[in-house]
Design goal:
alpha/beta, five-stranded parallel beta sheet, 5 helices, 5 strands, 18% strand
Length: 131
């Protein structure tokens, strides 16, 4: 069995970002090879103009103070940590084409690929998650 984690990020909210990057960095910290495939709304989590200002879900504003009190890193900080730890970030080419987005619209250091790119990584992953 491999020591690989494959994550599909298809939702683009703040809580989705925390789930994706918390799991990815935790796994990378245990020497697990991690790849995240961002598709559809999940692309918001790595988009230069949105990832730093993802809104708190309606009715969940009380979490904002909890994040501060618990010293939870911001999404840009978590993304940076993930990249420093070697987490592979793959933006879905098909979704980018549909949404008329270019690689330059996203944070630096990402890969762009299709489903086959992700499947090549995921085919022998010991764990696959979807958020």
């Amino acid at each position: 069995m491999s020591n690989k984690l494959a994550i599909i990020a298809s939702n683009g909210g703040l809580f989705d970002a925390y789930k994706v990057f918390n799991i990815a960095t935790a796994a990378a910290a245990t020497d697990t090879e991690v790849a995240i495939f961002f598709t559809f709304e999940g692309l918001n989590l790595i988009h230069k103009e949105t990832y730093a200002q993802l809104p708190m879900p309606a009715g969940k504003e009380h979490f904002e103070q909890g994040f501060k009190t618990a010293n939870v890193p911001s999404i840009p900080e978590l993304v940076g940590m993930a990249q420093e730890m070697g987490v592979k970030i793959i933006a879905c080419q098909m979704t980018m084409d549909v949404m008329n987005l270019k690689k330059e619209d996203f944070i630096d250091g990402i890969d762009v690929g299709g489903a086959v790119t992700f499947l090549d990584f995921a085919q022998d992953a010991s764990v696959t998650l979807t958020f």
